[in-house]
Specification:
This protein is an all-alpha fold. Helix content is about 85%, strand content about 0%. The longest helix has about 35 residues, at about 5-40.
Length: about 80
């Protein structure tokens, strides 16, 4: 298998894993927002604020990685990841 094809297959697997992680992170973010909106104790509210911020950062990171792969395919799908 040539180098370009190997990189393309590897990127496809990475892309699929990133999309899965992005979907799970979206679910985690929805859950964190729900927990925050239902919290009454000040310590829990603080905790959920940090959780929301943390999950938002993870979501942003994963989204940037997905966009990088999509951009590499848009430029030239045969050279993705080169």
């Amino acid at each position: 298998m040539n180098r370009i094809l190997k990189n393309s297959v590897l990127n496809d697997k990475r892309y699929a894993l990133l999309l899965d992680a992005l979907e799970r992170t979206k679910h985690d973010l929805d859950s964190a927002y729900s927990n925050l909106s239902n919290a009454l104790e000040p310590d829990l509210i603080d905790s959920y604020i940090y959780e929301v911020q943390s999950v938002q950062m993870r979501y942003k990171f994963l989204l940037e990685r997905v966009k990088q792969i999509e951009d590499s395919y848009a430029k030239n799908p045969l050279e993705a990841g080169s």
